[in-house]
Amino acid sequence: MAHEGDEFMKAFACGDVVPGCAASWTATSDDDLLVLVGAHAHAAHGIEEVTPELVDSVTRHIVALS
Ligand SMILES: [Zn+2]
């Protein structure tokens, strides 16, 4: 049964994409995580634009916490 919803927590560790970065987040959806990661990428890594490639590498490293 397809299960869509926000009851799973998602987690992302920046260090999975940017070696050495200790930042990590949890949120209830990929979109929320991407907002947090995008703000961090800009503030901490000088990334001005969240490109589709960046979104792709982030989403591939998002883990679902059950
Ligand atoms: Zn980072």
TrEMBL record:
Q: Which Pfam families match?
A: DUF1059
This protein's source sits in the domain of life called Bacteria
Q: What is this protein called?
A: DUF1059 domain-containing protein
Supply the source organism for this entry. Herbiconiux moechotypicola
